[in-house]
Amino acid sequence: MDGIANFDKTRFLARIKGYGIKAQVFLYKKIISTQTKGKKEAEKGAKERTIIIASRQSGGYGTRQKFWLSQKGGLWLSFILKPQIKAEKAQFLQFLLCLAMRRALNKAFLKQLKTKFEIKPPNDILYKGKKICGILVETSIVGDIIKWAVCGIGINVNNVLPKEMQESAISLKEILKKEIDLSDLATAFFIEFFKIYGVFLKGGKSAELKLKNWQL
Asked: CATH: 3.30.930.10, 3.30.1490.20, 3.40.50.2300, 3.50.40.10. Which one for 9-215?
């Protein structure tokens, strides 16, 4: 376990704490998969909001265990939730993650770009039709209740994509023509996510209305 270039852990924790978000963060220069590590830690009783971030993954994966290329410069992370909700609502967690990431990206960069980042259901974020982010949720269910959920985020930030991927995928650095601070991007995402997640857990018509408005 070690630090990651372009990720200021101290600043990240201080900024999200300012929004009432307390978390544990573990940084790795290289790991097989943040998602695999997250599930192991969840099974061992790790707390909600345990966040695992890696500079590189050798065995990163997405939906249907499809290999996810995770080179240095991207933001590769997984975090643990313990929502204590019915298993039938697990699908909503993936939607909330997509919504939060889209909102974070658009708030940060829309004024510069004029073109919105969009959600491609069920779990991708696109820019002008090219994939920039993939999202994965894996759960442990006891009875009909979610014991824990490990949420994985893979976003192309400053990493260089191989030529064979450039027709279908893109990075923030390529879009913005500059490097992006990974801790700033993670901060923006988690602020959006836990705001949306809190509303979701409260439930009721008021929550439904807010979530619908945030989709716009």
From this structure: 3.30.930.10
